[in-house]
Design a protein that fits this description.
Blueprint: H1 6-28, E1 35-39, H2 57-66, E2 71-75, E3 79-83, E4 95-107, E5 113-115, E6 122-130, E7 135-137, E8 145-147, E9 150-152
Parallel strand pairs: 1-2, 2-4, 3-4, 4-6, 5-7, 6-8, 6-9
């Protein structure tokens, strides 16, 4: 004769195990979360896409492009960024870049454009951009917002 008390216990154990496994899977699945990148140096150098320490504006834009969530780029420094390499990578995702009125971007005359938003919902504000040869901000984005930014060539 079968023990009728054992049967419900086995199903209860299997149900709890399955629930724990599913919750564990949900915990492990990476999600596209919004990220904030802090620019903490005024130097401009080729990006290594590492946005942990000594993060340049160029690197922060590349890191935001690599993240599929909505991103914010803020500044932990103030002053002038001398751009001599080329303009920054196109801004391809939803990104808010706030210079907070404390950042000047002085582009070399060989730099044709500084910012190039191509994604949707891009906001660029609080910069002074000087020295470029064609345009400080080339907008190809849908729903781009540019505010509190002065440009002079």
């Amino acid at each position: 004769m079968k023990d009728s008390r054992l049967f419900p216990l086995v199903f209860r154990f299997l149900g709890l195990t399955a629930f724990t496994f599913c919750v564990g899977l949900l915990w492990a699945i990476p999600s596209s979360l919004a990220a904030t990148y802090t620019v903490d140096t005024l130097t401009d150098e080729a990006s290594d896409s590492e946005c942990v320490v000594d993060t340049t504006l160029r690197e922060a834009i590349d890191c935001a492009n690599a993240n599929s969530g909505a991103d914010t780029i803020v500044f932990g420094v103030s002053g002038t960024i001398a751009v001599t390499i080329a303009g920054f990578s196109p801004i391809t995702g939803q990104t808010d870049i706030d210079g907070n009125g404390a950042i000047t971007i002085a582009a070399d005359a060989s730099v044709t454009q500084v910012f190039n938003p191509t994604g949707s919902n891009v906001t660029i504000r609080g910069f002074t951009i000087t020295g470029f040869s064609q345009c400080g901000i080339s907008i190809v984005a849908s729903n781009a917002t540019i505010g509190g930014t002065d440009t002079t060539d």
